[in-house]
Amino acid sequence: MGRHKLHKPRAPRGEGERPTEWFGTAFHSVRGMQHLDVRRSGNGILITSSPAEVDGAPASWQLRLRNDDGGQGLNEMGAAMKAGRGHVYSVSEEPGAKTVLAFLPNHPAEGVGTLARVRTSEDPDGDVVFERSAERPMGLWAEAGANLLRIVPQLGPDAPADGVGDCSCSVAPGWPDGPCSSAPAFRSPGRSRAVRT
């Protein structure tokens, strides 16, 4: 995947405050610079991947993970990313299909991990569609997971709303226009599951 450069958490604005955001950058020999940003967003976490793949086109993907279970789901997601193990954060079911948000280590290649929103049909022989995905070096995911774990304790029920959309994307600069849609924010199912890859 190429080399990656990790960045320290951004400094807080007020004295005595702990940082609530982190960013990192990786360089891919074909795709160029790839950015990953983890920050507090109201009472949840916003993960921004740029570029990512959205409906088959390069775009910026903003993923809002809500803190609706006292931080349990976010802590499990952060721990899995930091440890480099697979993890299903959320599953939503609808007639005939399931949509899953998952972290897949060493996918599609050794040393590369993928955060993906995947749609599957109930038919065992049905298609699996990666609606959105972001591939980054495992070291960058590990650092993002460590910083997610650092930010989660700062979340609370009284955290201010910030007007961030549930899940949005925009076409990445320098790339041709591509399809882009919105989807609901992912909520932790209360108990997350590990994924074997």
Spell out the key features of this protein:
mainly beta, 2 helices, 13% helix, 44% strand, globular
Secondary structure: elements and pairs:
Blueprint: E1 4-6, E2 21-28, E3 32-41, E4 44-54, E5 57-66, H1 72-83, E6 86-94, E7 97-104, E8 112-121, E9 128-137, H2 138-151, E10 167-171, E11 193-195
Antiparallel strand pairs: 1-2, 2-3, 3-4, 4-5, 4-9, 5-10, 6-7, 6-11, 7-8, 8-9
Task: Walk me through the structure.
By secondary structure, the protein is mainly β. Strands 1, 2, 3, 4, 5, 6, 7, 8, 9, 10 and 11 form an eleven-stranded antiparallel β-sheet that branches. The longest helix is centred in the last third of the chain and has 14 residues. The radius of gyration is 16 Å and the shape is globular.
Broad structural category: mainly beta
Shape: globular
Calculate the mean pLDDT score and round it.
Answer: 77
Approximate helicity band: 10-25%
- Determine the number of helices (DSSP H or I, runs of at least 4 residues): 2
Briefly characterize the structure.
The chain is mainly β.
